[in-house]
Each structure stands twice: as C-alpha cells, then as structure tokens.
Amino acid sequence: MSTFVQFPDESEDQRLLLKSVLISENHLPSSAIKMVAWAAALACRDEDVVKQVQFIVGDLSAEAKREMQYAVSRMSVTNPYFFSRQFVDIHAGGNLESLQLRPFTDIAVENEVDYHYACIAVSMVNGGYACFQSHTMSLKTLGQSDTAIDQAMRITAAVLASRQVNFNHHLL
User: Fold this and answer.
1) How far is it, in rounded angstroms, from Cα 163 to Cα 51?
2) Which of the four CATH numbers 2.60.40.10, 3.40.980.10, 3.90.1150.10, 1.20.1290.10 does domain 10-171 have?
3) pTM tops 0.90, yes or no
C-alpha cells in the first residue's frame, strides 16, 4: 500500500486543486483546514487517502481527535437518517433526541467552528444534505465567511477526487 495517492497526468487538475486548497489558500485557519481534510478523508474510508492527508496537513492534536470522533460518528447517524426523512411523510421522530444523541452542549466541543467544518465535510461525502445545510448555517452564525466555507467545500471535493484517482489507479 502506498503512502500517497499517485496522480497521473490526466488528474493533474485534481492534484493542483488539492495542493491549492490545503497549502496555498488561507481563507480558513490552519486548524480548520486540517479538520476538514481529515474529516473528508475519514468519511472516504480509504487508507491511502487518509495517509495522504496526514502527510500533507499533519496529525491531529488529542483534542482535535476527540472532536473529530464526535463529528464523524454523529454524522454517520444523522446523515442517512435526516437524508431519508426528506422522502417520507411520517409524524414520529425527526430530531436528535429520537437518535439518542446527546445535545451539542453536552459533548463539550472546544472549537465549535472546526467541529462544524468537520461536519460539513463528512456530510458532503455522505450525501447528508440536511446536516450539511444545518452545519453551514451554524458556521455562518459563528461569523464564518462564504469564502472560508467555500474553501472547506473545495477541500472536501479535492479529497474526494483523491479517492477517485486512487481507485482508478488500482483498477485501470
């Protein structure tokens, strides 16, 4: 297993995007860049992509790992649940309490902005549109700019592209 995703010439645009959003751009604080990249990579469930992200942005601190665990695990429940509720008209559940999730204030997230950025990354990968929209609105309420949110979205797209490039490399 390689430690990097190999980008062939046909995927040069994707490699340049990954480099740009993770290294060159600064609309997001470095802690948020790291959280978004790690969240997207973990949601991809591809060890090569995770290793690439780790190489580029570094390891997470102990507190960031804790908050990442919350973001990824909570989105693994809420993304499919709230996605599916968009397509049925039922009059039961439909809230975090019905999923047995503790209120956000009870999980004692230290960096709320980074947490919400991780949640939008996981939600993009999982197709959790309701969660994506909710966490994006939370970021805007917390004063995050559209430009910063867009960089987070492009980081997630670039990490997803890495997964596709890696998949293609192994099969083509």
Assistant:
1) 11
2) 1.20.1290.10
3) yes
